[in-house]
Amino acid sequence: MTSAGAPRPTFRFAPSPNGRLHLGHAYSALLNADLAARTGGRVLLRIEDIDPARSRPELVDAIMSDLAWLGLRFEAPVRHQSQHMQAYRDARDRLIARSLAYPCFCTRGDVRVATEGSAARDPDGAPLYPGTCRGLPPEAAAARRAAGAPHAWRLDMARALATESGTHGYADLALSSPAERGGEGVSHETFRVADPVRWGDAVIARRDVPTSYHLAVVVDDAHQGVTHVVRGRDLEAATDLHVLLQALLGLPTPRYHHHALILGPDGGKLAKSKASESLADLRARGDTAEAIRATLGFA
């Protein structure tokens, strides 16, 4: 239960409308809802649709349908990232004004050529950006921008770490198995030191939108008063970068838990990009919501 004077525990489930939900999404949504119920908290739904090329309105409707079928209800209004670009632009501009971000004119091909032969990779497996545009004279960068040269914005990691000196980290929640639940929902927590340097000069705003996943989620979590971020283990490394961005922007750091992933028949994680069997597929073959909940440990 919530102690006197403490903010009400607030969880969130934040899918992207670029494919149908699968069992991994169902597990994460159900776990967030279960923990909210056990702690006297609330769970919010956020649609992470900053990608204009991949986000599709009909998939937003499909997400709503799948979650309702599972028996999940969320507070209105649902936050859609595509409707809050100004908030992300403002956060980006705050970092730029402090010289913590710089324009990058490199294409993916440029980065690939510049890093050929290098084994350095970020946690997502992409070549670690070598800082090609970091040293551009401000006048030259401004002239290229004025001429309409496409560019992203990258965090100057070294400058950011020098600005926010000291140890950064977050409360890492441990939950009991099998459904990673127990008692009031959390068995204990430990302090985990963040290691954002492994991301290098990460992109904080893309060429086509004034944000990135990393910047948008920290702005959203703060705006929505999220106190507990419970998401898949595949996003654990991203938390290191998020903690740094929160410090740079003066935003609160939630507690975090990165749950085990639901694996497919091949032993790999379920993914929209792999066309993993969706909840819609399971519904079509006659599986019930009750059966899905029981399979995932939420009977």
Automatic annotation (TrEMBL):
Question: Metal-binding as a keyword?
Answer: yes
Specify the domain of life of the species encoding this protein: Bacteria
Entry protein name: Glutamate--tRNA ligase
Q: Which Gene3D superfamilies match?
A: HUPs
What the entry lists under InterPro entries is as follows:
aa-tRNA-synth_I_CS (IPR001412), Glu/Gln-tRNA-synth (IPR000924), Glu/Gln-tRNA-synth_Ib_cat-dom (IPR020058), GluQ/Sye (IPR049940), Rossmann-like_a/b/a_fold (IPR014729)
UniProt GO MF annotations: ligase activity
Q: Does the keyword Cell inner membrane apply?
A: no
Q: Keyword set for this entry?
A: Aminoacyl-tRNA synthetase, ATP-binding, Ligase, Metal-binding, Nucleotide-binding, Protein biosynthesis, Zinc
User: What phylogenetic lineage does the species belong to?
Assistant: Bacteria, Pseudomonadati, Pseudomonadota, Alphaproteobacteria, Hyphomicrobiales
The source organism is Methylobacterium cerastii
Q: Which family does it belong to?
A: Belongs to the class-I aminoacyl-tRNA synthetase family.
Task: Report the residue ranges that make up the Glutamyl/glutaminyl-tRNA synthetase class Ib catalytic domain in this protein.
Answer: 12-295
